Amino acid sequence: MMALIDLRSDTVTHPTDEMRRAMAAAEVGDDVFGEDPTINALQERAAGLMGQEAGLLTASGTMSNLIAALAWCSRGDEMIMGQEAHMFWNESAGPTALAGAQIRLVPNDVNGRISAQDVAAAVRDSSNIHVPATTLVCLENTHNRCSGGVMTPQDTREVVDVAHAAGAAVHLDGARIFNAAVALEVPASELTKDVDDVSFCLSKALSCPVGSVLCGSEEFIGKARKWRKMVGGGMRQAGVLAAAGLVALDSMVERLADDHANARRLAAGLANIDGLTVDEDGIQTNIVIFEVDREKVGDAREVIAALREDGVLVSHSRDQALRMVTHRHITAGDVDEALSRVNGTVRRMAGAA
Ligand SMILES: *Cc1c(COP(=O)(O)O)cnc(C)c1O
């Protein structure tokens, strides 16, 4: 049996031995009472890295995003986000269903950025009783559905200024914010200090088994703590999870540059396979989205199934677009082996087409 090369997501990464040792040895307490010293240390550390006052460990990025929507929006409010936002596509409509706020979409550019001009045009007139109040603008960095594209500190500030001028808060879905920071070679805080709150995932490329941290002002985190309790996210001796998070922040951030180099290597190889199209220069971090020619090769879902048989796991992005994500368990050698297998699959399907 040939070993599977799993490029579906960086969420497939396992905790390191160092994380497992730290988890076993973690000092813990009841976090609903605020008494878990390891969680408190992680939250403080995360807030510092984000340039924010306080942090809150949550079960997932989805839970963080939901808590942000609950904390900033009332029923009947409106939140603005990009048309490709994870919060819009992949969170089971939680922000709308549970926060009761509707979503107003603005365009994302190829790198996943939304423009200050589009946000300014979408903000509602607060004096008009016919329209919802714009209370939140959501950013995403890096951008999942836009091939891991990054927003710079400047891009971020421009949107924040427009949102604040309109009286709206800015939530940053920074599930992969450290990928953005490493790609731009700036401290993560440069990308997060100007927003009103930010969430990042420990459980993706940082290799932790579970968890996200939501960061913001003391006041915001106070509210978020109550919303987290309401949605069932008040955990107890979760310091065993936070211990892995502390190891991740110490040792898993700089190595993201390797994932980015492997993603570029992967994109360059895919670009050489007839029947596949990829914007090589658009690969800024660890996500590679590429198009499969339906006429030449076949339907995207059939390609995914055929690749699985040939030992390469990939995920579906949209229509004929597939997604590959590099991570800690993928070496440059694995990239080359994956490319060779993909080429074989595509040639076989093209021959049969
Ligand atoms: C993965 C992801 C989330 C959700 O995180 P989970 O921990 O899987 O719930 C939110 N936003 C973005 C951009 C993501 O990539």
Structural category: alpha/beta
Mean pLDDT over all positions: 97
According to CATH, the fold-level topology of the largest domain is Aspartate Aminotransferase, domain 2
Under CATH, the homologous superfamily of the largest domain reads: Type I PLP-dependent aspartate aminotransferase-like (Major domain)
**Strand-residue proportion:** 15-25%
C-alpha Rg (nearest Å): 21 Å
Number of domains: 2
CATH architecture of the largest domain: 3-Layer(aba) Sandwich
In CATH, what is the class of the largest domain? Answer: Alpha Beta
Physical arrangement of strands within the biggest beta sheet: 2-8-7-6-5-3-4
Biggest beta sheet attributes = 7 strands, mixed
Beta strands, count: 13
Q: How would you name the oligomeric state of the polypeptide chains in this document?
A: single chain
First-to-last CA distance:
27 Å
Low-confidence stretches: none
Bound molecule kinds, no repeats: pyridoxal-5'-phosphate
- Separate helix tally: 14
Instruction: Please state the overall shape, judged from the principal axes of the Cα atoms.
Output: globular
SSE arrangement, N to C: EHHEHEHHEHEHEHHEEHHHEEHEEEH
InterPro entries: ArAA_b-elim_lyase/Thr_aldolase, Low_specificity_L-TA-like, PyrdxlP-dep_Trfase, PyrdxlP-dep_Trfase_major, PyrdxlP-dep_Trfase_small
Pfam families: Beta_elim_lyase
Family: Belongs to the threonine aldolase family.
Keywords: Lyase, Pyridoxal phosphate
